[in-house]
Structure formats: structure tokens, C-alpha cells
């Protein structure tokens, strides 16, 4: 492990255009459960499977049931950035990290101080009226009874990508450009099974692909460096350079 951490630290010193691609595992250390972990949302018992509840068609047909689950299991208003979030913000401040590309919707990277954050699946902090497009923050949604409603009477929808919805083309193009131009790509806290987001790392053409995850991924054989362990502990160790 020490040798791998030394290698990672050396590469960070050598590089000036690092990109980080992260998944749910980055936020589990902040107390936000991973959908696919044993203790995650998939292990909870509901009338419908989570994949069904957080789909576009379910939101349209059963908005009250959608919001009951969404408020209960998708919102963690007391969560705070962990060591991984803070380490990435430090690397950006040092001019090493160009962008964070995240599958998470919790906004913790921005809370930690990161400036260039591409949110592939949206954010719980942005909510819009489906009728007049008026903006509402997370606090408004949390405090609303049942279905959050706009002052115009329209239903409010979180700016998150639900099942059956496509990713934002502009964000995808920007993410691809960052990854293509990166001299180092660090992938952390993701099992790399959620597509099309996971396919983005295939655009990397460099020779410093680093995978940091507690469990093996399908891309391990393609990586130049694989570190098994806590994403927070690893990044905190090397972020000081």
C-alpha cells in the first residue's frame, strides 16, 4: 500500500491537468448510503423497488409516493464533506485538479470548496416548477408537505436524473473534453456499473489511470494503478503533496 500511495503522490506532483471521476462511495463516508451496498437503499423494504420509485414514469403517475421516498431516502440535509471532498478541493486550489466529475447529487464537493464540478446526475439543491420553471432550493422541498408546489400551482421537480431520463448533453460533452485532455484520471468510490456515466472513462487516453475503490471493478485490468481502500484516507494522504 505504501508503495502505491508513493506512486500516486509522485504522479500528482508530475501532473498539472488531473481529473477526478467519482461515485457514491465518495459520499458514503459522509453518511450517505450507497444504492448498491448491502446497507444501501436497495436493502430497504418498500411497496415498490427503488428503481421503480425514482423513475420518470413513476414520478409522473404517483408523485406523492415518489416524494415520500425521495424525502425519506434521498435527502441527507445534515451530511457534510468528508476527507475525500476536502482533499479534492485542496488539489484544485493548488492548480493540480482541473475538474470533479461526479455521479452524486448531494452537492458536497461544492460545500467542500471545489469550483469546477460536473454533476452528471443533477443535484438535490436545484428544484424547478414543471409549469413556470421557477427555482426552489432544497430547504423548500424538505419543508413542503407531500408534493412540493410552486406559487403558480405547478408541481416542483428535483433537478436530478431519474431512471428513464437522459443525461444532460452539455455536461456530457464537457466531461468528455476534460477526460480526453487529462494527463491523469483518478476514479474513486464507484463500481463503474452505471452507464452511460461509467463509460466516460473510456475517453481517457493517458497512462495514469488510477482506480481507488474498496472493491474490485470491471476496469481494474485497464488501470495503471489500483488502490483498494477508503477513498477519503487515500486522497487525504496524498493531497498535501
* Helix-strand sequence: HEHHHHHEHEEEHEHEEEH
State the helix count: 10
> Biggest sheet, open or closed, and with what strands and sense?
6 strands, parallel
Shape: elongated
| Rg measurement, Å | 18 Å
Annotated CATH architecture of the domain at 1-32 and 81-121 and 166-241: 3-Layer(aba) Sandwich
Q: Can you give the mean pLDDT?
A: 93
Q: Can you identify the CATH superfamily of the domain at 1-32 and 81-121 and 166-241?
A: TPP-binding domain
User: Termini separation (Å)?
Assistant: 17 Å
CATH class of the domain at 1-32 and 81-121 and 166-241: Alpha Beta
* Main β-sheet, spatial strand arrangement: 3-2-1-7-8-9
What's the CATH topology name of the domain at 1-32 and 81-121 and 166-241? Rossmann fold
User: Which percent band covers the strand fraction?
Assistant: 15-25%
**Structural class category:** alpha/beta
The percent range for helix content is: 25-40%
In total, how many beta strands? 9
**Uncertain regions spanning at least 5 consecutive residues:** none
Subcellular location: Cytoplasm
Catalytic activity: N(6)-acetyl-L-lysyl-[protein] + NAD(+) + H2O = 2''-O-acetyl-ADP-D-ribose + nicotinamide + L-lysyl-[protein]
Protein name: NAD-dependent protein deacetylase
Main location: cytoplasm
What does this protein structure show overall?
This protein has a domain at 1-32 and 81-121 and 166-241: TPP-binding domain (Rossmann fold, 3-Layer(aba) Sandwich), CATH 3.40.50.1220. The protein is 33% helix and 18% strand. With 241 residues, the protein is of the alpha/beta class. A 6-stranded parallel beta sheet has the order 3-2-1-7-8-9, sandwiched between helices. Helix 6 packs parallel to helix 10 (231-238). 37% of the residues are buried. GO terms for molecular function: histone deacetylase activity, NAD-dependent; NAD+ binding; zinc ion binding. NAD(+) binds at residues 24, 28, 35-36, 103, 105-106, 121, 190-191, 213, 231. Keywords: Cytoplasm, Metal-binding, NAD, Transferase, Zinc. Residues 1-241 form the Deacetylase sirtuin-type domain.
Amino acid at each position: 500500500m505504501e508503495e502505491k500511495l508513493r506512486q500516486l503522490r509522485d504522479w500528482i506532483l508530475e501532473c498539472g491537468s488531473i481529473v477526478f471521476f467519482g461515485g457514491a462511495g465518495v459520499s458514503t463516508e459522509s453518511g450517505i448510503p450507497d444504492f448498491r451496498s448491502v446497507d444501501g437503499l436497495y436493502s430497504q423494504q418498500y411497496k415498490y423497488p427503488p428503481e421503480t420509485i425514482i423513475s420518470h414514469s413513476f414520478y409522473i403517475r404517483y408523485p406523492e409516493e415518489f416524494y415520500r421516498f425521495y424525502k425519506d431516502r434521498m435527502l441527507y440535509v445534515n451530511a457534510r464533506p468528508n476527507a475525500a471532498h476536502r482533499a479534492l478541493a485542496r488539489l484544485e486550489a493548488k492548480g493540480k485538479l482541473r475538474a470533479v466529475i461526479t455521479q452524486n447529487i448531494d452537492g458536497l464537493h461544492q460545500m467542500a470548496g471545489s469550483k469546477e464540478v460536473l454533476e452528471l446526475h443533477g443535484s438535490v439543491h436545484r428544484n424547478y416548477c414543471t409549469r413556470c420553471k421557477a427555482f426552489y432550493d432544497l430547504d423548500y422541498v424538505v419543508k413542503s408537505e407531500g408534493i412540493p408546489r410552486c406559487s403558480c400551482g405547478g408541481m416542483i421537480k428535483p433537478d436530478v436524473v431519474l431512471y428513464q431520463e437522459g443525461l444532460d448533453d452539455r455536461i456530457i460533452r464537457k466531461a468528455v473534453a476534460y477526460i480526453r485532455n487529462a494527463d491523469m484520471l483518478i476514479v474513486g468510490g464507484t463500481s463503474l456499473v452505471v452507464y452511460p456515466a461509467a463509460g466516460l472513462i473510456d475517453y481517457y487516453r493517458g497512462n495514469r489511470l488510477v482506480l481507488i475503490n474498496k472493491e474490485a471493478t470491471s476496469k481494474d485490468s485497464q488501470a495503471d494503478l489500483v488502490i483498494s481502500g477508503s477513498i477519503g484516507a487515500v486522497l487525504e494522504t496524498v493531497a498535501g503533496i
